């Protein structure tokens, strides 16, 4: 098939990289809306949340995969399955390595997995967070990246400085097949609202909590319905699941103060997402070993 220079392109992209590489931030920046969750803690992104970049010449659907890691629990295995599934379905993969950290075993592990699972998917090497280092170090990082695997393209970017974000979008788009728009204009995500709402609560609950809580926290939406007789108010009933009583106390805080803050923060974000006022009812529940129990995992959406 011959390719017309001005043809419309459409397809899927995802970002891979070790935890904290800046994948979620990149995706948010590309799609211009907060649909994935960023946090200063590693491995907070659990769902394959899609954002859509609409352009005159292309539609790029970005799938955000969880950080790949060597599985230690059932949850870890499920997450990795999800990652591999995503890799073989997309048209292009962005492999993120932060500029301020040496290329290491974590990156090599991902490169090996990519070579195994997605040999035919083009990979764009992305050096992220270039604002944190000097030019020389960016150049060295690009060279180090080149040693990792065969990249279709290499590009340094900074989401914080908005440096080369358009170039990155161009490079990803150039790898897409010709095709029509797949989603209507203005639609930023096809993730169910409830999943996004749950993620926003999870993000708020994680904020400022030290130690290993990220893996011990899940959120379910029990009910999300418009208030009777009102078209401007939605009632949201949600449960924050933790694994131990001690974690429950951390999330709730002294006199319930922390949970109130979590509620306030989450409510603000959810209202922005849904475009209506919400009443948020939050409960914290100890769901023992939810990470290891297949039934609980299913219930919590994994
Ligand atoms: N200075 C700087 N920091 C960044 C940039 N992009 C992301 N960060 C920070 O790096 C941290 C991790 O970013 P995320 O986008 O959550 O990283 P991730 O790769 O999605 O992480 P996981 O979900 O754990 O896999 C956050 O604290 C971001 O604010 C950047 O361009 N410059």
UniProtKB/TrEMBL annotation:
GTP binds at residues 17-24, 64-68, 128-131. One of its GO terms (cellular component) is plasma membrane. It is found in: Cytoplasm; Cell membrane. Signal peptide: none annotated. Residues 128-131 are annotated as: G4. It comes from the Bacteria. Residues 157-159 are annotated as: G5. Residues 43-47 are annotated as: G2. Residues 64-67 are annotated as: G3. It is a peripheral membrane protein. PROSITE patterns: G_ERA (PS51713), KH_TYPE_2 (PS50823). Residues 17-24 are annotated as: G1. GO terms for biological process: ribosomal small subunit assembly. Residues 209-288 form the KH type-2 domain. GO terms for molecular function: GTP binding; GTPase activity; ribosomal small subunit binding; small ribosomal subunit rRNA binding. InterPro entries: G_ERA_dom (IPR030388), GTP-bd (IPR006073), GTPase_Era-like (IPR005662), KH_dom-like_a/b (IPR015946), KH_dom_type_2 (IPR004044), KH_sf_prok-type (IPR009019), P-loop_NTPase (IPR027417), Small_GTP-bd (IPR005225). An essential GTPase that binds both GDP and GTP, with rapid nucleotide exchange. Plays a role in 16S rRNA processing and 30S ribosomal subunit biogenesis and possibly also in cell cycle regulation and energy metabolism. Belongs to the TRAFAC class TrmE-Era-EngA-EngB-Septin-like GTPase superfamily. Era GTPase family. Monomer. This is GTPase Era. It comes from Allosaccharopolyspora coralli. The gene is era.
């Amino acid at each position: 098939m011959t390719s017309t220079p001005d043809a419309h392109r459409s397809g899927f992209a995802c970002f891979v990289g070790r935890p904290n590489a800046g994948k979620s931030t990149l995706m948010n920046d590309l799609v211009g809306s907060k649909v994935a969750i960023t946090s200063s803690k590693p491995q907070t992104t659990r769902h394959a949340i899609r954002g859509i970049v609409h352009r005159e010449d292309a539609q790029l659907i970005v799938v955000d995969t969880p950080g790949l890691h060597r599985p230690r629990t059932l949850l870890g295995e499920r997450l990795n399955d999800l990652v591999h599934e995503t890799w073989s379905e997309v048209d292009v993969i962005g492999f993120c390595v932060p500029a301020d950290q040496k290329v290491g075993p974590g990156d090599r592990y991902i490169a090996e997995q990519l070579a195994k699972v997605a040999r035919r998917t083009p990979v764009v090497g992305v050096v992220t967070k270039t604002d944190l280092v000097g030019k020389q170090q960016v150049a060295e990082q690009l060279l180090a990246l080149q040693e990792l695997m065969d990249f279709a393209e290499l590009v340094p970017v900074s989401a914080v400085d908005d440096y080369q974000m358009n170039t990155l979008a161009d490079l990803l788009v150039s790898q897409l097949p010709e095709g029509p728009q797949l989603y209507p204009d203005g639609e930023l995500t096809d993730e169910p609202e409830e999943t996004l709402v749950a993620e926003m609560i999870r993000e708020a609950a994680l904020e400022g909590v030290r130690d290993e809580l990220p893996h011990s926290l899940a959120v379910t939406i029990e009910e999300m319905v418009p208030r009777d007789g009102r078209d401007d108010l939605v009632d949201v009933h949600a449960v924050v699941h933790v694994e131990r009583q001690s974690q429950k106390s951390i999330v709730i805080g002294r006199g319930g103060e922390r949970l109130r803050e979590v509620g306030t923060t989450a409510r603000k974000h959810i209202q922005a997402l849904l475009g209506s006022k919400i009443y948020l009812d939050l409960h914290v529940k100890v769901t023992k070993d939810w990470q290891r129990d297949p039934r609980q995992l299913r219930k919590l959406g994994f």
